[in-house]
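fyi for ur records
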Amino acid sequence: MLYERSATVYGAYAPDLPGLVATGSTIDEVRQLMREGIAIYIDELQRSGDPVPSANHEAAELLPVDMEILRTLPVSTEFAKAS
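which gave:
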């Protein structure tokens, strides 16, 4: 899953599960929504007889992140303005 933070919300998506996204006011809320969403997504695939996709994306390096510090960082909107 990939997590993002904007000026107003947190978001996440699962590249290997097309269309599965979640947004919320906290990172913990988004994590919970993604866990629930993944379970529902896979259940629906199995119910409809569709194959569950294998992971095609992987992290090259996982770094521990102190979420409390992350929450205090300023959010830059310069990239969005330049696009």
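The CA atoms of residues 3 and 62 lie 13 Å apart. thats all i got for now
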